[in-house]
Design goal:
single chain; about 450 residues; alpha/beta; Rossmann fold; 2 domains; seven-stranded mixed β-sheet; five-stranded parallel β-sheet; 16 helices; globular; disordered N terminus
Length: about 450
């Protein structure tokens, strides 16, 4: 049996933190207070621990497994209702909303743009709130706004159980020029409709894009590592690898590490901060190109027109089907505002990053499946069935970096398993449960209807 504080081993000896949000409740509250102090505002912290809170958060297990020498998998996707790392932040946001209703009597409608996974996790969290009695449909609802490009990412959940729940918690599918435009559409509606909606219905519109919604929850990653794979003076060099869009998860880890470094009751102080290794795709490479200080190289198409190739830039794919390839539509953010923060952390503590192509993922697919299986994560044999590529991309990125000598031999790499699902493991949303919209006016009407 693994004892907390001892390094994880492999396979069946993996370490698991059960119900991380409940287990680390005091530490997460401390992180919330620290963030509030940074911003000079009153802290907004989760509900006090109680039986219902523990039941509400019991989908937040974190696993840490050694899958081969110097490679570990940090499993953040153990919630069967979402299968991505968005679960913890979503549960905390919903818990805060429920707490707000208890304190003020105001009802809350969460309004969020999403490329798919965040919306799935928030809808799952709201459904869990209903099921556990944390909240009811009368006082808490959620509206998600998805670009059409993310149709394949949308998942079913208990909020589709009947017509009333579907109307109160609609899923909008937006026709937008670029996937990221859903953010501007949602922000406009929140800005223009919030006052009138509250006056007419008592529902307070809550946006979700604030980075700190994620930083505070994702601090749990560092607390889990400190128990299961502590960084000591004798530890090898360590990197944390993550398939990223804006790297919110790594910034959350960094917050948790900072809290540990300052000293938390009963928690050891890490010997040092690990480096970060960013993995991205060619369509949205800005975090990697920024940290490398290099542009995506020019690709030349082979005579048959089927494959694009480049040589001499090892941080980028040697082969791709498209120099602007989208491996996964979830990763839709260009030039994220988090670049300066992440670059500063890598500048201080080391790391880097690389871009992967679908061809690279497929060339190493059997190896990726084997590594995931060591961590207890099943990846099917047919890559065409994958709807969420985060884990495959991250593991591929590490394998490629090791092959090309971009990660020094003997370096421990903790791979953040931030998402993987298929239609078989997480049922897709049905067309009749989606509401097509053309822009802000349509969304405003949908929000008003959801508040009835």
């Amino acid at each position: 049996m693994l004892v907390a504080g001892q390094p994880v081993r492999s396979g069946a000896d993996a370490g698991v933190i059960h119900n991380a949000l409940s287990r680390f409740h005091d530490e997460i509250r401390a992180a919330a207070r620290a963030v509030a102090a940074e911003r000079d505002v009153q802290p907004v912290v989760p509900l006090e621990p109680a039986d219902r809170f523990t039941e509400f958060t019991d989908a937040t297990d974190i696993g840490l497994t050694r899958v081969e020498p110097h490679t570990y998998v940090l499993d953040l996707m153990r919630n069967p209702g979402a299968r991505t790392t968005k679960t913890m932040a979503s549960l905390l946001m919903v818990a805060r909303a429920a707490g707000h209703t208890r304190r003020t009597g105001e009802r809350v409608m969460i309004l969020t743009p999403t490329s798919g996974n965040k919306g799935t996790a928030l809808r799952d969290a709201v459904a869990r709130a209903y099921a556990t009695g944390i909240a009811t449909p009368a006082d808490l609802r959620v509206v998600t706004v998805n670009p059409e490009a993310s149709r394949g990412k949308l998942r079913d959940c208990p909020l589709t159980a009947d017509a009333g729940l579907r109307a109160a918690n609609p899923v909008a599918l937006a026709r937008v020029a670029e996937p990221g435009d859903v953010k501007a559409v949602t922000a406009r509606v929140a800005r223009e409709e919030a006052g009138a909606l509250f006056e007419a219905t008592g529902f307070r519109l809550w946006p979700t894009l604030d980075l700190d919604n994620y930083r505070i929850a994702d601090a749990a990653r560092a607390f889990a590592e400190a128990e299961l794979l502590p960084l000591t003076e004798d530890s090898p060099p360590r990197l944390h690898a993550h398939a990223v869009s804006s790297a919110f998860g790594l910034l959350g880890y960094h917050l948790g590490h900072e809290m540990l470094a300052r000293g938390l009751p009963g928690r050891a102080v890490p010997a040092r901060h690990p480096g970060f290794w960013l993995v991205q795709q060619l369509a949205t490479p800005d975090m990697v190109t920024a940290v490398l200080g290099a542009d995506v190289p020019d690709y030349a198409c082979d005579p048959g027109g089927a494959v694009w190739r480049q040589e001499g830039a090892p941080h980028f794919p040697a082969e791709t089907d498209d120099p602007r390839e989208v491996v996964d539509s979830t990763f839709y953010t260009r030039a994220p505002a988090t670049i300066p923060q992440v670059n500063a952390i890598i500048g201080r503590h080391g790391g880097g990053g690389g871009i992967v192509s679908r061809r690279e993922c497929l060339a190493r697919f059997d190896r990726v499946r084997a590594l995931a299986a060591e961590a207890g994560i099943a990846i099917g044999a047919d890559p065409a069935e994958i709807r969420e590529w985060s884990l495959v991309k991250a593991l591929t990125g590490v394998l490629v970096a090791r092959e090309r000598g971009l990660i020094a031999p003997g370096t421990d790499v903790v791979v953040h398993a931030s998402g993987h699902y298929t239609d078989a493991s997480l049922a897709p949303a049905r067309d009749e449960h989606l509401t097509p919209i053309g822009g802000a006016d349509d969304l405003a009407r949908l929000v008003r209807a959801a508040a009835r």
